[in-house]
Write a structure and sequence with these properties.
Strand content of chain A: 25-35%
Number of strands of chain A: 5
Strand content of chain B: 25-35%
Helix content of chain B: 25-40%
Distance between the termini of chain A: 38 Å
Structural class of chain B: alpha+beta
Helix content of chain A: 10-25%
Largest sheet of chain A: 5 strands, mixed
Largest interface: A-B, 25 and 36 residues
Number of helices of chain B: 5
Structural class of chain A: alpha+beta
Strand order of the largest sheet of chain A: 2-1-5-3-4
Distance between the termini of chain B: 25 Å
Radius of gyration of chain B: 18 Å
Oligomer: heterodimer
Order of helices and strands of chain B: EHEEEHEEEHEEHH
Order of helices and strands of chain A: EEHHEEE
Number of strands of chain B: 9
Chain lengths: 81, 170
């Protein structure tokens, strides 16, 4: 399946674009997507361990099942204010 | 009154206070977080804030409601700016109105701390030497577990079934 990954905060520094396309074998979970991304860069892999993940305006867990066309947002540690 | 908690233009305290006056409230506390010109010994020229806006909007509203309930205060509001900010500009404005000052101060501190530590906002600093860096923040990965524990505490067997059940249960 094909999904899109939206890169927020410092995750953007480790990828080529704000939005990246990811192809995953079905069935796939959030953890599968993160593992695939982590395999592209050790630094990104370390940061992904600290990332929350959202689909739409919902935070989802690592075992959340993915569907084709999902937009997965990577949310690294936050620092507002 | 509804308004965007995440804003792209300079924040207005007057706008945030509009319509909040209440004869039962003897206390109003206000916090403004403004952009500093230094961080950990480095000279900062400007900041850029970014956000996951849909999630941030929802979480700030939830934090406002939770703060009102926790401190038994009638009104809390927070707005946070995103985009590029210069030194001295306000990045966050928060207000609390309550009967007396003790709970107004306590609720305001809690409100600001919760927004800083939990809401998907990121701060990128631009330094005098031309480099930039994201400020190290708070990991919110456990928030997903907390949200699901709260919503689905009665049924962990199947995520979608549990979610549909939670939405129809009143």
């Amino acid at each position: 399946m094909q999904i899109q990954v939206l890169c927020y905060g410092a995750t953007r520094r480790h990828v080529a674009d704000d939005v990246i396309e990811l192809a995953l074998a079905e069935p796939a979970t959030v953890a599968d997507a993160l593992n695939t991304l982590a395999s592209t860069s050790n630094e990104l892999g370390e940061l992904l361990k600290q990332c929350a993940v959202a689909i739409g305006d919902e935070l989802v867990r690592r075992n959340h099942p993915l569907h084709a066309g999902d937009e997965l947002a990577l949310l690294p540690p936050v620092a507002g204010g | 009154m509804d308004f965007n908690r995440i804003q792209t233009t300079p924040l207005s305290l007057d706008a945030l206070l509009a319509g909040t006056e209440s004869p039962e409230c003897g206390a109003l506390t206000v916090f403004s977080g403004t952009v500093r010109d230094h961080h950990e010994g480095r000279s900062v020229l400007r900041l850029k804030y970014t956000s996951h806006v849909p999630l941030a909007e929802r979480m700030i509203r939830e934090i406002e409601q939770a703060t009102c309930a926790k401190f038994d205060v009638p009104l809390c509001r927070v707005v946070h700016r995103i985009g590029e900010l210069g030194i001295g500009e306000s990045a966050i404005l928060a207000i609390v109105r309550s009967g007396h000052r003790a709970e107004a101060f306590a609720a305001l501190k809690y409100l600001v701390d919760q927004v800083k530590h939990r809401v998907p906002l990121w701060k990128e600093e631009f330094y005098a030497d031309g480099s930039s860096a994201f400020v190290t923040g708070c990991c919110i990965a456990d928030e997903a577990d907390d949200a699901h524990e709260h919503e689905h505490h009665h049924d962990h067997a199947h995520h979608h079934a549990a979610h549909a059940h939670a939405e129809t249960e009143t």
